[in-house]
Design goal:
There is one protein chain. By secondary structure, the protein is an alpha/beta fold. It contains eleven helices and seven strands. Strands 1, 2, 3, 4, 5, 6 and 7 form a seven-stranded mixed sheet that branches. The longest helix has 29 residues. The chain starts with a helix and ends with a helix.
Length: 326
C-alpha cells in the first residue's frame, strides 16, 4: 500500500511539472516580443565631375542605378517580412545643398517618397501604394534626371566629410523606439537611417589640411610605403599609420548605416585587370571603413563600380536585411 502511495505521488508531481512547463511555454508565446524597423533611406550621389562620362567613364550611369533602386521601393517595403504600417522614407539628398538651391529645376518635395505622411492612416497608405506609388516614382526619377543634367553642366564640389559631419543632420530620423502591443504580442519599432552614397572614393574638403581629404596621391603613397615596408597585412599597416587616416567626424554617426557604392578602382586597366598590388580599391575600402566606423557608423558596406544595373538593387536590399538582423 505504501509503495502504491509513493508511486501515485510520483505521477502527480511529474504531471504538475509537465503542466507548469506547458504553462510557461504558453506564457512565452503570449508575451512574445519582436522587433521591426522603418527605413529612412537617403540616396546621396557625389555630383562632382565624377558623373561626367567623358572624364570618368564607368559601366553603368548613376541615374540607371538610382532608377533601379527607386523602382524597387515597393519591394523594399516588404524587407524583414513587413506587411503593413511601414513608415519608410526614400529621399534624394545633397552633399552640396547649393545644387538644389541654384538649379531651379527640381523641387525637394519631388525628390522623395515619404510614407511617414501616412502615420496612423492605414487606409490612405494602402490607397497610395495601390494607385499613386508608381506615378510618384516616375516623378521622382524625372527630377533626379533634371538634377544630373544641371550638375553635368554646373559641376560642384563634393565635400563628403562635411556632409556626414554636418549637412546630413536634418535628413536623419532619430526618435525613441515605440512598443506596440495587442495584449498578446509586443512589437518594438524603430527607424534605421540608411545612407546610400554614390562616390568614386576620393574625398575633397573645404578644409585641405591633413585628415580631411583623400586623393589619388594619398593612395599611391600608401601603396608604395606598404611595399617598401615588406609588410604582409595591408590593414594592420594602414592602422599603424595615423597620418594616413581620415579624421572621424565630430557628428556621431551611431544611428547611421552607410552603404558606399561605385568606388572606382583606377589601378585596373580597361579590361578590368589588376595593374598594381595592393589595388586602389583595397586601400580605399580600408581607409573608408576605418573612417566611418571611427565616426560611429552602425554598419558599413563598400562596393566597387557595378557591371549591371540590378547590382544596386541587390546591394541595397542585402544591406537592409543585414541591418534589420543586427
Amino acid at each position: 500500500m505504501k509503495n502504491i502511495f509513493y508511486f501515485l505521488l510520483y505521477i502527480i508531481i511529474i504531471s504538475l511539472n509537465t503542466i507548469c512547463c506547458k504553462k510557461e511555454d504558453c506564457n512565452e508565446i503570449v508575451n512574445k516580443v519582436s522587433k521591426t524597423y522603418d527605413f529612412n533611406v537617403l540616396l546621396v550621389p557625389d555630383l562632382s565631375n565624377r558623373i561626367n562620362p567623358d572624364i570618368h567613364p564607368k559601366p553603368i550611369h548613376d541615374t540607371l542605378l538610382l532608377n533601379t533602386v527607386i523602382d524597387s521601393i515597393g519591394n523594399f517595403l516588404t524587407v524583414n517580412n513587413r506587411r503593413m504600417n511601414q513608415l519608410d522614407s526614400y529621399k534624394f539628398d545633397f552633399i552640396n545643398r547649393g545644387v538644389l538651391n541654384n538649379s531651379q529645376v527640381a523641387d525637394a518635395k519631388n525628390l522623395q517618397i515619404n510614407f511617414r505622411e501616412f502615420k496612423g492612416k492605414i487606409r490612405d497608405a494602402s490607397n497610395f501604394k495601390r494607385h499613386h506609388l508608381k506615378p510618384a516614382i516616375s516623378i521622382f526619377k524625372k527630377n533626379i534626371s533634371k538634377i544630373y543634367t544641371y550638375s553635368l553642366k554646373n559641376p560642384a564640389g563634393s565635400d563628403v566629410w562635411n556632409y556626414l559631419n554636418q549637412t546630413i543632420t536634418p535628413s536623419l530620423i532619430n526618435e525613441p523606439s515605440i512598443t506596440i502591443s495587442n495584449g498578446k504580442n509586443s512589437i518594438i519599432k524603430n527607424t534605421k537611417n540608411v545612407v546610400v552614397l554614390f562616390t568614386d572614393g576620393y574625398i575633397e574638403s573645404a578644409n585641405n589640411s591633413a585628415g580631411y581629404t583623400f586623393d589619388q596621391q594619398s593612395i599611391k603613397k600608401i601603396r608604395q610605403e606598404f611595399i617598401n615596408s615588406k609588410s604582409v597585412d595591408l590593414e594592420k599597416f594602414i592602422q599603424s599609420k595615423p597620418e594616413y587616416l581620415i579624421k572621424k567626424t565630430s557628428n556621431n554617426l551611431k544611428n547611421v548605416n552607410v552603404l558606399v557604392l561605385e568606388m572606382v578602382d583606377r589601378s585596373l586597366d580597361k579590361n578590368g585587370s589588376t595593374t598594381v598590388q595592393p589595388t586602389d580599391f583595397e586601400i580605399m575600402k580600408i581607409i573608408w571603413t576605418q573612417w566611418l566606423k571611427s565616426s560611429g557608423a552602425a554598419h558599413v558596406e563598400i562596393y566597387p563600380a557595378f557591371s549591371k544595373r540590378t547590382d544596386a538593387y541587390d546591394a541595397v536590399k542585402k544591406f537592409m536585411i543585414e541591418i534589420s538582423n543586427n
